[in-house]
Design brief:
- The structure holds two protein chains of two kinds.
- Chain A is mainly beta.
- Helices cover 0% and strands 54% of the residues of chain A.
- Chain A has a single domain, classed as Beta Barrel (OB fold (Dihydrolipoamide Acetyltransferase, E2P)), CATH 2.40.50.
- Chain A has a four-stranded antiparallel sheet, with no helix packed on it. Chain A has a four-stranded antiparallel sheet with strand order 5-4-2-7, with no helix packed on it.
- Chain A starts with a strand and ends with a strand.
- The longest helix of chain B is centred in the N-terminal third of the chain and has 17 residues.
- Chain B folds into two domains: 239 residues, Alpha-Beta Complex (2-enoyl-CoA Hydratase, Chain A, domain 1); 188 residues, 2-enoyl-CoA Hydratase, Chain A, domain 1 (Alpha-Beta Complex).
- The N and C termini of chain B lie far apart (58 Å).
- Chain B is built from 21 helices and 16 strands.
- The chains are: A mainly beta, B alpha/beta.
- At the A-B interface, strand 5 of A face loops of B.
- Chain A: This is Acetyl-CoA carboxylase.
- Chain A: InterPro entries: Biotin_Carboxyl_Carrier/Decarb (IPR050709), Biotin_lipoyl (IPR000089), Single_hybrid_motif (IPR011053).
- Chain A: GO terms for molecular function: acetyl-CoA carboxylase activity.
Chain lengths: 69, 512
């Protein structure tokens, strides 16, 4: 499963790392946009297979932030 | 009479094939259902009572190729409720409109209004038929039906775009209360072949009026579906929230969800860190009956959420800001979406609930070019003229003019209350200082420190207690009691006339 950015912004914090087990609804990344911190959560439980962004990156709506299996 | 009956049955049997078996095969091959199959998927089994089955084109020599003249019309029941339904028949001249088609659809629409039945349109087709509509005589008798233009939200009108639609089906869709579009179809004024000749523009169907265009840019479609079945399912769900006609309230549905249920989880969802966004849909889910809601235009103007839901069985419309998108700040699309939704709810006797978390409007030079002031005031005018019960809850931020648009005090709500987390003000203090002391700050050396110093003294109280203290809002409530408060107040607000509205917005346009 791909976790995507639901809006354009800057990656403020990456909260999980490669190989980490995560649970449904867990926040995985916090984006910063319009001076707000926007938490992005995982829709499913699983293991982080790939983290595609790092702190400070600009992401567009729809960009893949990480892949969870 | 045996012979006569046999002939009748034979005629009907042939008519049911519309444009013929070959055309039906082709429709299936392209992955589409026929008009009759669509109606069957929508209505209760055996309930379809067809009118105009024996009609056909009035063009000479076309009688045998045009059974129904491109539209299947009749009465039926959907989940036991009577409705009026029409489905465009692609097998007859590609679902285009001849004069008999016109006569059928007009009569059907008039009947829906006469007896107060929801009107459901399962549409596709290329618009006016050629050559029928050609010439000064053709076009003179085939302009827009008045019954569609003056529908005035008398009965709920729902349109599903199930195949490529230009002209007629598009007009009908944008005049409707609720529109679904199956992905892969097109909805536009005229097709690419017409554009090619008119302006030379070469464009695909998808670019012209594919779902993506309506999802992101136009907002002319309320929900999109992966296939025809899902589109038809959406229609049924929408109807469930609608009254039979504008003189009635939507049906109340018994619920096993405790009306005074405490929303204990809400404290985990809405953070007190004012810079941290949260998903307002989670708050809505928690408040409404059985966590169930029906969202309108989920992909358009996403900083504002509009949903139909039930509270203790009673249908309500919720207008809420979405902090996850643009911090909840509304732009032109959000304004249109709010206006549209207020018109819908007020016209069909559905009380409105407002959940504020809005830091202001998204102002920019682009927004001004899109008539932001007009959009803001259109929303406010709709709000001011609406007469259904309205209850307003300030969850977190509600700043400036947007506080009014979200039905703040003096804006016609039955009740306005705040959560203790509310932050109400004219503008944020940082912005306020920049406006008032901007020039002074430009000329100082220690801008940063002076700004901080000014901020310290710029202590206008934005907590809700200041407004509650002067009784400018009705109360500050425990967030966990939000469901209870809404259900209690709705009961009082609806005690005299139910949720019946004066319907002052019923003749407002169906799009802005």
């Amino acid at each position: 499963m791909e976790i995507k950015a639901n809006l354009a912004g800057v990656v403020w914090q990456v909260l999980v790392s490669h190989g980490e087990e995560i649970i449904e609804n867990q926040d995985v990344v916090i984006l910063e946009s319009m001076k707000m911190e926007i938490p992005i959560e995982s829709e499913k439980s699983g293991k982080v297979k790939e983290v595609k962004v790092k702190e400070g990156d600009f992401v567009n709506e729809g960009d893949v932030l990480m892949v969870v299996v | 009479m045996e012979k006569e009956i046999k002939e009748l049955l034979n005629r009907k049997e042939i008519a049911k094939l519309g444009g013929g078996k070959e055309k039906i095969k082709q429709q299936h091959k392209l992955g589409f259902f026929t008009a009759r199959e669509r109606i069957n998927k929508l209505v209760d089994p055996g309930s379809f009572l067809e009118l105009g089955l024996l009609a056909h084109s009035d063009q000479e020599g076309m009688e045998h190729k045009s059974a129904g003249d491109g539209i299947v019309t009749g009465l039926a029941k959907v989940n036991g409720r009577p409705v009026v339904v029409q489905a465009a028949d692609k097998t007859v001249f590609a679902g285009t409109e001849g004069i008999v088609y016109f006569r059928k659809t007009k009569a059907l629409h008039e009947y829906a209004l006469k007896r107060g039945f929801p009107l459901i349109n399962l549409m596709e087709g290329g618009g006016l038929r050629m050559p029928d509509g050609m010439g000064s005589d053709g076009i003179s008798q085939m302009l827009f039906p008045q019954v569609m233009l003056r529908h005035q939200r008398e009965v709920p009108m729902v349109t599903s775009i199930l195949g490529d639609s230009f002209g007629g089906p598009t007009w009908l869709a944008v005049s409707s209360d609720f529109v679904t579009q199956a992905k892969g179809t097109t909805m536009a004024v005229a097709g690419p072949r017409m554009l090619e000749v008119a302006t030379g523009e070469k464009v695909t169907n998808e670019e012209l009026g594919g779902w993506d265009v309506h999802a992101k840019y136009t907002g002319q479609v309320d929900q999109f579906s992966e296939n025809e079945e899902d589109s038809i399912e959406s229609i049924k769900k929408f109807l469930d929230y609608m009254p039979q006609h504008a003189g009635k309230e939507p049906r109340c549905k018994e619920t096993n969800d405790e009306p005074y249920r405490s929303l204990d989880k809400v404290v985990d969802i809405v953070t007190t860190n004012r810079k941290r966004a949260y998903d307002m849909k989670k708050v809505i889910k928690l408040i409404v009956d059985n966590e169930d809601y029906f969202e309108m235009k989920p992909t358009f103007g996403k900083a504002l959420i509009t949903v139909l839901a039930r509270m203790n069985g009673k249908v309500v419309g919720i207008v809420a800001n979405q902090p996850m998108q643009f911090a909840g700040a509304a732009g032109p699309n959000e304004c249109e979406k709010a206006t549209d939704f207020i018109c819908l709810c007020d016209s069909y006797n559905i009380p409105l609930i407002f959940l504020h978390d809005i830091p202001g409007f998204r102002v920019s030079s682009d927004a001004e070019k899109l008539k932001m002031p007009t959009k803001i005031m259109m929303w406010n005018q709709a709000l001011a003229q609406s007469t259904v019960p309205k209850i307003s809850i300030i969850i977190r931020k509600s700043i400036g003019a947007a506080y009014g648009n979200m039905c703040g005090p003096t804006m016609g709500a039955d009740f306005v209350v705040a959560w203790p987390t509310a932050e109400i003000n004219f503008t944020g203090p940082e912005v306020g200082i920049n406006v008032v002391y901007g020039r002074q700050l430009q000329n100082t050396e220690n801008k940063k420190e002076e700004r901080l110093e000014l901020l310290k003294n710029w202590g206008f109280d934005s907590s809700p207690y200041k407004a509650a203290g002067k009784y400018l809002i009705d109360d500050v409530i425990d967030p966990r009691d939000t469901r209870k408060f809404l259900i209690q107040t709705l009961e009082y607000a609806c005690a005299k006339n139910g949720s019946l509205s004066e319907r002052k917005l019923a003749n407002w346009p169906t799009g802005f």
